[in-house]
Every structure is written in structure tokens, then in C-alpha cells.
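Could someone model 2-phosphoglycolic acid with this protein?
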Amino acid sequence: MEVIISKTAEEASQLAGALVNNAVRNNPSLVLGLATGSTPLSLYKEMVKACRAGLDYSRVRTFNLDEYYGISPEHPQSYRKFMNDHLFSKLNIDLKNTHVPDGLARDVPAHCATYEAAIKAAGGIDIQVLGIGSDGHIGFNEPTSSLASRTRLVTLTQQTVSDNARFFATADQVPRYALSMGVGTILESKKCIMLCFGANKAKAVKGAIEGGMSQFNPASALQMHPDTVVFLDEAAAADLQLKDYYRWAAANQPL
Ligand code: PGA
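Reply:
Sure, complex below.
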């Protein structure tokens, strides 16, 4: 993993944004894997800024990591609505090219298989954007998720339900289940960029980067991925043992 520590989340998001925007510039029909949550919002602003300055997103295709199960795409807290509001409506992207699992899918295994097949048919994900849960989840792959898992129905942890309660009127309204790409699905992306900001992520980040690879911290599976860049702010990097080395390595990249 390449670990990039920035002073602030804002700075880290600018670096990640430049990476994504350059990739779209080089390949106008790039396939992007996208994430929801507070973390990628500044990255999405960088994408919107570039699009408003002329970068063409009209042929870009996207696949989101996950969706709450049991709520409709129109639900105010659905991830489909989140993506439409925060990103898709602000880009010149064709909504037909954007994919989010359907939280109301009736035949869940068939829907998940179709989602996986659509990713394959698009040629696979070129860049997968990831956040990390305070419990180490990527997508909604909670601790104990198989590191070979595929898109499927999962049960959220109590930690995730309580972390996400801030978006709902009461914790009782947070869905208990979600459809999520699996860790195995994520690992097939050609490049992964994981953004982790804030002190409440420091423990999960330490486990993901410097811990042993374990299904107890699904993000640690990225240690097996050949091209992952982790963007951190100082607070999320606080517990890392090799912080000085990551800074040194970032400043002394081999050609
Ligand atoms: P957050 O969520 O960006 O809202 O902290 C991250 C995640 O759960 O993956």
C-alpha cells in the first residue's frame, strides 16, 4: 500500500481528486467504483469542480459499493439518493451509466449476481473509491466478512448502526441490512484509493495498514491488492508506527 499523509482532509481530498480527474482525462469512459458517507464528499467536490471547468464525465461509468436493504432509491437516506444529490446531479454524467444496488430487490441473490455481471461487462472497475468504517469495514463488509466475499446481503454491526444514526431521526430507523460488494469484488478493482479522516478512524487505519491481514478488519485485505493508495489526514494517521517512513517514501518515490 502507498500511504499518503496530509495535514488536513481537505488537502488529502485534493490529491485524491487530482488522481481521479486525471484518470478520467486519460480515459473518458473510465469505470469508477464509488462510496458514500461523509469522507468522500470533498473528493466529489473536486470532481464537480473539474467537470465545471470542462472535464467530460458523460461517458464515465460508476458502480457504488453498497445500498441499505429494505429502503427505496427515493428514500431520503438511500445511497442512490445520496449519490444523485452529492455527485451525479452536479456532473454531466449519464444517469444510465451509474449503478447502485437496489435496496428493494426481491430476488437478492439474482440481483447481486446481476450487479457483479454488470461490473464484469463494463470491463471491471478501474478505480475504486473507499472509506473505512470505525470497525474496519470497507463497503459494508463488516468484521468477519470473508475476504473472498462477493456482492451479497449483509447484517450491519451495532457500531455501524450507531455511527450512521446521525443521518436518521432515531437509531431505530437505521436499516439493519445492506447489499454490499464483497471484499473479493473490491480486490478485483485495478486500483483502490481509500480515504480515512479523523481520530475515530485511527484504530481501524492502524489495523488495516500495519495489522495482520484479517477478516476482523476487512480493510486489511487491501494489503493483498497490488495498487492501493491510502489518503490520510494527521488524525487518522495518529496511531501508525511507520508514519515517518510513509512520509519519507512519499517524498522519495522511485521513478
Ligand atoms: P464515513 O463512513 O465516511 O461517514 O465516516 C465511512 C464508511 O463507513 O465507510
